[in-house]
Amino acid sequence: MSAQDVYNTLYSRFHSVREYLAPVLRDSKFKETGCVNPEEFVAAGDFLVYKCPTWSWEAGVPEKLRDYLPSDKQFLVTRNVPCLRRAAQLEVAEQDQDTKEIEAGEQGDDDGWTYTHSNRVPQSVEEMAQQIMDEDDEDDANVQQLADLRLDAQQAPPADDDIPDMEDIPDMEDDQIVEEDDPAVAAPPTVLQSPDNDKILQVRTYDVFITYDKYYQTPRIWLYGYDEQRRPLTSQQVFEDVNADYVKKTVTIEAHPHLNLHLASIHPCKHAEVMKKIMERMTQSHNGDQIRVDQYLIIFLKFISSVVPTIDYDHTISA
Q: Active site residue: 35, 52, 83, 269, which one?
């Protein structure tokens, strides 16, 4: 066990005690600090389940029940989320990589948060907010397009005079017909090679959990991975699907607060700060329209994708 692993284990135990002793947030500080209280967490979870039925509430084991949350809504989970590639495959050339770290500084600790550029992940908080807004605008455009299609389908059918008689259509000679190659036949599908060269696409899946952290007063993400044979992934294999800048720093192995499992977890130390900045940028870009607290988890999941860019839960979200 490395020195970093020992530190993470001790810190995890310390945080468990600290969270247990921390008071429950009662007042709403969503706009001022980016934190949410348990009631707001449940409201945001209900909205997430409504918008994306792949997510659901669970109760966990009875002996780990948190009395500040409803007994049947202790945490959220989505299962069998695909992960087709390793995080290292998304890394860009080193000279094109630009990172920015928010230093803890005034808080007196050494926690920090890194924003890393890749082909999926925005570089800064401003770019995160802009990307989320662009995705929302695209969703609105798709909805409008579907509505237009429904209106077109409801229009009256063409008059009989507009439909040509089959006898008026000239026959086409066989020698005038040029058959094109069927692309499905002409181009065989590409098969990804596995490390064992067995031509099997290596598809991992993940169960993704969202819990409420009473000390940091924010949601917290937990990951439980499986290989293609549904065998649980080792800690090292899970770290292969995490952005390298966060492994064993922001992402560590800790005890799940509601299950008897030790899972990879994304540390919530900077969640409130980042969420506050993202929501401020989004409010400014929407001419002052305030982000609702029930939208919190949808925005949160989009931002968390910077840490686990190949775990493709975000495709199921429609804000």
A: 269
